[in-house]
Design goal:
The protein has a seven-stranded mixed β-sheet, with helices on both faces. Strands 9-8-10-11-12-15-16 form a seven-stranded mixed β-sheet, sandwiched between helices. It has a two-stranded antiparallel ribbon with strand order 13-14. The N and C termini lie far apart (63 Å). By secondary structure, it is an alpha/beta fold. The protein folds into two domains: 245 residues, Rossmann fold (3-Layer(aba) Sandwich), CATH 3.40.50; 148 residues, Response regulator (Rossmann fold, 3-Layer(aba) Sandwich), CATH 3.40.50. Bound molecules: phenylalanine (PHE). Phenylalanine (PHE) binds next to helix 11. The site of phenylalanine has 15 residues, from helix 11.
């Protein structure tokens, strides 16, 4: 036993380097118990923060919300590795919704149990997580993922099993086309990319650069929409450059970009790289506006870019915790009371997705996956934290967006855009 301890410790300590090829980035500011993105998974660190206050148990990188024997729902989220900021927030939003619903008597008299499995920011792990949800937990509905590439990897498995899958926040348009059991409760990148382009055009910016993450379906899809919409509105993409996830240095690509003298740089990627791009662009003296979308939503962005965010940086998002709507205020208060932190858009989208699933189960009057699927397809005007949710014929939800800027390090609403604006 003792002899085993040292090598194991050594392995755990070196795991971030093995997994990511580079040392772990700084931990998210808001999540005391959250694992450092890229940090080793272990029984204690990969459990969701807030578990102490949760109704269920946590073991390793799985969590259970609600009683052990309620109606079985499955969640899969990146509780660990590079996208853990997304997964941790989503887990908390879903857990809060489950507990609220159960406290009000559950659905059709039955309590809900959410089994949460770790997709660990990787396609293979997402597939394994969903296998466990379908086979071991016999989940009636599967809820996940955030990152489009991970949702896309798993959708065919849910479709084949004929178990409805609901993504709270994956925006890649092709996702729900994977089959009639695949839903989302958020807008698609067709809409989000149009919002990004519209915002830039409204600002009068004409020369744009795209920086795309070449390994992300989300980033590639959104880049295409931004290009199409920005160009159609009179803008011009003067340069389109690729980068890869976990890339630490953007100076050569940014030097090229600087020479083009753009008005705006679009960065439709995730927070780790967006944070570094903002920092390194400003260090190089690039003054252009830098605009992104929901993938920026993480405290890690603020840690990486710091005060530089206050100047000419914007991103489109699903909601803002500062919105004046009563639904938002109630949600923010309940989340803060439970987790002692403020909910980002991931938490809000995830919270809404559980309520939409609960509504569908209630309307179905059945716990059979086929009946729940049919009821999901008919959800209309659900009053969510992230706006009204109506599932359309393509199983997507058309919704407004907020465009966020930063002031003194805090997000502020620059403007809001409606579906009719694009
Ligand atoms: N929309 C992103 C994707 O599809 C994920 C995301 C959602 C990120 C919401 C942040 C906030 O990959």
């Amino acid at each position: 036993m003792n002899r085993l301890r040292l090598p194991l410790l050594t392995l755990l300590v070196s795991l971030p380097v093995l997994l990511t090829g580079c040392p772990a980035p700084p931990p998210p500011a808001d999540s005391g118990a959250a694992p450092t993105p890229g940090a080793p998974a272990s029984a204690s660190t990969s459990a969701a923060p807030g578990d102490a206050a949760a109704s269920g148990n946590s073991a390793g990188s799985t969590t259970t919300w609600g009683p052990a024997d309620g109606l079985s729902l499955g969640g899969y989220m990146s509780l660990t590795d590079s996208l853990s900021s997304f997964g941790q927030s989503s887990n908390k939003g879903m857990g809060l919704a489950i507990e609220e619903i159960n406290a009000k008597g559950g659905v059709n008299g039955q309590q809900l149990t959410l089994h949460m499995e770790d997709s660990a920011s990787k396609q293979e792990e997402a597939k394994n997580a969903v296998r466990r949800l379908l086979d071991k937990h016999q989940a009636k509905v599967v809820i996940g993922e955030v990152a489009s590439s991970l949702s896309l990897a798993v959708a065919p498995d849910c479709q084949a099993a004929k178990v409805p899958m609901v993504s709270p926040s994956s925006t890649n348009p092709t996702l729900t086309a994977k089959g009639d059991f695949i839903f989302r409760t958020c807008f698609t990148d067709d809409q989000q990319g149009a919002y990004v382009a519209k915002f830039a055009l409204t600002k009068g910016w004409k020369a744009g650069v795209i920086l795309r993450d070449i390994n992300s379906d989300y980033s590639k899809g959104q880049s295409a929409v931004i290009t199409k919409r920005f160009t159609a509105g009179g803008g011009k993409i003067v340069s389109d450059e690729g980068y890869t996830q976990k890339q630490p240095d953007f100076s050569s690509v940014l030097t090229k970009v600087k020479a083009k003298n753009p008005d705006v740089i679009f960065v439709p990627g995730y927070y780790n790289e967006a944070g570094l791009i903002i920092k390194q662009a400003r260090e190089l003296g690039i003054k252009a506006a830098i605009v992104g979308a929901d993938g920026w939503d993480s405290p890690v962005l603020k840690e990486l870019a710091g005060d530089l965010l206050n100047d000419n940086c914007y991103f489109v998002n699903h909601y803002s915790k500062t919105e004046d709507r009563p639904r938002v205020k109630e949600f923010v208060a309940a989340y803060k009371a439970k987790f002692n932190e403020e909910p980002d858009a991931l938490a809000a989208c995830a919270y809404d997705s559980i309520y939409v699933v609960a509504e569908a189960i209630k309307a179905a009057g059945s716990t059979e996956p086929q009946a729940i699927r049919d009821a999901l397809a008919k959800v209309q005007n659900y009053d969510g934290v992230t706006g009204q949710i109506t599932i359309d014929a393509q199983r997507n939800a058309s919704k407004p967006c907020v465009v966020l800027a930063f002031k003194d390090g805090q997000e502020v609403i620059e403007t809001t855009l409606q579906p009719s604006d694009v």
